[in-house]
Amino acid sequence: MQAEESLRILVGTEGDSLPLMEINAGETEASEQWDYVLVADRRTQRNPRQACQQRRFLEELRTKGFHYKMMEDREKVFFGVRADSRIFDLYRTLLMEPEGPAARGQPARPAPIPATTRIRIVNFVLNSKTAAGDTLEDLVKNGVFETRFALHKGEDDLKKKWAQWRNMVNKQPIDDIRDYFGEKVALYFAWLGWYTYMLVPAAVAGLVIFLSGFSLFNASQISKEICEADDILLCPRGDHGRKYQRLSDTCTFAKLTHLFDNEGTVLFAIFMALWATVFLEIWKRQRARVVLHWDLYGWDEDQEEMALELINCPDYKLRPHQHSYLRSTAILTLCLLMICLMIGMAHVLVVYRVLAAALFNSALLFQEEQVTTAVVVTGALVHYVAILIMTKVNKRVALKLCDFEKPRTFSERESKFTVKFFTLQFFAHFSSLVYIAFILGRINGHPGKSVRLAGLWRLEECHLSGCMMDLFLQMAIIMGLKQTLSNCMEYLGPWLAHKCRLIRVKLGHASEDPELRDWRRNYLLNPVNTFSLFDEFMEMMIQYGFTTIFVAAFPLAPLLALFSNLVEIRLDAIKMVRLQRRLVPRKAKDIGTWLQVLETIGVLAVIANGMVIAFTSEFIPRVVYKYHYGPCRKGADPAVDCLTGYINHSLSVFHTKDFQDPIRIEGSENVTECRYRDYRNAQDYNLSEQFWVLLAIRLVFLILFEHVALCIKLIAAWFVPDVPQSVKNKVLEDKYRTLREKIRSSRKSTDV
């Protein structure tokens, strides 16, 4: 054997023993297509137990009809794996269907097996249980093998046309992605591209709503009254408020709030409900066209998995569907406990905000009027960190619950895991927003008699300009961080890891053998796992939730999502083609359970936005005042704005003599009354008649809004068919042609 360039190649073929040969790299057969590589540390060759386990695993592969080759460098041992052509012939026979549109014409010789199919079959067999009861995953954990991966081959075309930042606005080559990564990945990018395209009208509408607030920035009657209210003093807010504040000091925030809390908010919320429905319905049509083009319209996933099981083991016994009410009850109970934990995390954030307000005030870190803004911003940052931590916890819990449930197949396991993990993630991301939107500032009592945490700290109040500002800031910070910081880490992490590996190898020995060099190049890429594509889907589902749920409080969410997705598509492409090992291709004809997740988010968005408009925004109080209490209640007067006097009407009166310790409040000597946001009587501070009238109207509006929005969704879903007529007709023609061919074949056999 030559010093470092001689290769030890262990070749296994059916019926042969396992001869150990020494040949040069150039003597390898050109027809060999090594699709999969196992890697082990060279030290395992000196460990008798691990070497025996390797040989036993490879011997079992040989008996199943696989070929393999061993190549060594200074540190690692590489095992190339490929399946015999008879395995693929069996695969075709079992499924009795073509591999693509070109196969319909019954060519004289079989079409070559796509690389995606070869890799998929090899991966399935490798990850199945051996005769000893071990799996490849068990062998990796025990150090017998270090890792395994599918080889990148022929990706240069995708690098040029797709995986470059300069192609950010170009159309994606979905068919090429399918031919290289399989249908599952191709459908993900087809869906992501369609979602990004449909975000354009939503982003434009949200931007128009936001800019319409700018056009009325100085014309709003409410903003004018607030800016001119020099004689109205607001009561001290919380324990950090030690002095009265003029209402006019909140002028700037009042104008900013009007940018997203204006008359167009209701129309935008209804538009987004319609948009979400149209987006999903047209996507279903797009999917049908793509799947028909791939000749997978009638493909059956259960049949595919059974075929792979039979290829791996001809004596495979079918696992029937099973259901255990006891197991389902236990899983439901554990899920509810985890959801309670997520809600508890929201309460922890509440405690943080209360304590942070006291700390910022006592430490004099901020001016008194800046404390609330500082608490909101830092609270959003803490929430973001909590989301990152709980994501890892939720994934582990969801996996354990899936293992306990014992799903029948991998696809069933993936579906159940998707539902559980998304549910936990949804509560982790949105529980804090629910608190801000519907609870913050509503259970605090009133000046002089406030509700306190542990009897010590007063609960946090909404922003001076209303709770919509708190919700807007929380949405903007969390979504902004997820779209910027997360994307940067998602790209920079794999890029830096790959560069470090390359530098480490360049400092060592580099083989001149092209095949070994190619295997090592693939080995040095970042590892992938079962969750690589799943994590991308989950990231988009959470973003879709932010884009639709609470969009009434943050109309710029679709615009941020649009910019983020333009980057996300190329970022994912570069990661998959240039920085990561090749994903194992998977067959699919839709995006699976994620479609039900999207539909669920659409319904939740209608409910959440209706509640935001009814209970969080000032839309209902303004409309009620305009037509029931204001100067226009008996008819419109062109000379008077219908909202004149609204601010005075919406602020309750508190007599300063009723403060428990009025002496501690700065400037209280000449102040007899102050104002606060609520609808209470000035005598006994009980909830006033206006509060109950508003509550009734809010509930009526919520019911009407949700019914109207849901009816619009249902009508849109009915109006736009899931499957285009051209697709239905094409499937019908194929069935008709098949039946005619069977009749002709039957007549020929009868004549003979």
UniProtKB/TrEMBL annotation:
It is found in: Cell membrane; Membrane. Residues 177-731 form the Anoctamin transmembrane domain. Keywords: Cell membrane, Glycoprotein, Membrane, Transmembrane, Transmembrane helix. Residues 114-174 form the Anoctamin dimerisation domain. Its main location: membrane. It is a multi-pass membrane protein. It comes from the Eukaryota. Belongs to the anoctamin family. This is Anoctamin. It comes from Felis catus (Cat).
